[in-house]
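Board notes (copied after class):
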Amino acid sequence: MSGFLPYGRQTIDASDVEAVVEALQSDYLTTGPTVARFEEAFAQFVGVRYAVAVANGTAALHTAYAALGIGPGDEVIVPAMTFAATANAACYLGAKPVFADVECDTLLLDHNVLDPLVTERTKAIVAVDYAGQPCAYPALRAFADRHGLALVADACHALGGSLNGRRVGSLADLSTFSLHPVKPMTTGEGGVITTDDPDLAERMRVFRNHGITTDHRQREQAGTWHYDMVGLGFNYRLSDLQCALGLSQLARLPVWVERRRELAARYIGLLAGLPDVRPLEVRPGVGHGWHLMVVRLIGACPPGFRDVVLAGLRARGIGANVHYKPVHLHAYYREHLGTHPGLVPVSEDAFARILTLPLFPAMGDDDVDRIVGALEEVLEDVR
């Protein structure tokens, strides 16, 4: 693939366009039957009873936390190495995110550091399936049960992944997904929450619809105008147009995940020849989703060194990125929660070293060769 290679890109073909056009020509553009069909197909794919479609991945987190009854004064344990939305959604509800550190070799939530973080205010643990690798859910489940906490999977990176034969989306009380264009599949913008709990599923459907117990299609089918708002909710609905695209994409997701795995394997093989770079480890029993190809720079990394490498790659047409600046280092949290450098040392050290290299299904093997070759050139120039 010639030209600039972004770190991620959607895959759209004629079948997707046809599905959206068909929805455009139907009776419903939003809150129609395609939403329910998409939710059923998604739930079946991950192996749970219920899926609730919402406007985006952040809405999925907000909706999941609200369904668990998280509110003012509560605390939610989240890893610092994640996108800000994982923590922000707790703040939306008046709760406090408590930042936990990650494992140095996977950048997944480290269950061994959680005990000191639990207080009488703690309501939930949120595990982030960083880069597409599911967390150590058996250990997290045991910890959550021991402390009477809910377990949420922020699985926005990991759709199509698995752990010990169980699909991501079925490993926690609630699992949240993003369907942004760079994710394993897309609805343009969109999100989904999965669960086996019927009460949680119903609370989430009400929350996404202004806190109203029925939507307009349900009222039309019942022949009534009447509705009741039983709580304060949000307009987080996903449209039939987006769900039509989602159904089309979901059918091809296994092929795309397999291609991501092939590309990741090629990366890992080639990177073995670069002593200054190391991919993240993959745990036994993991079916990796490979949303991101994250590598670490090994050895001395003086301040700004990673950014020099990133700039060198971009100058060569490689759209490298960084995922993520640890959330507690952002100005908002430093000002409002008093967080500071040194709070989670593994995450902070990783931040200075990590690069995200391009990875998406339309890439060819030669693209991986080009990227690794460019990375080798840059490191030779700057070391």
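Comment from the instructor: DSSP finds 13 helices and 13 strands in the chain. Residues 253-382 form a domain with the Aspartate Aminotransferase, domain 1 fold (CATH 3.90.1150.10).
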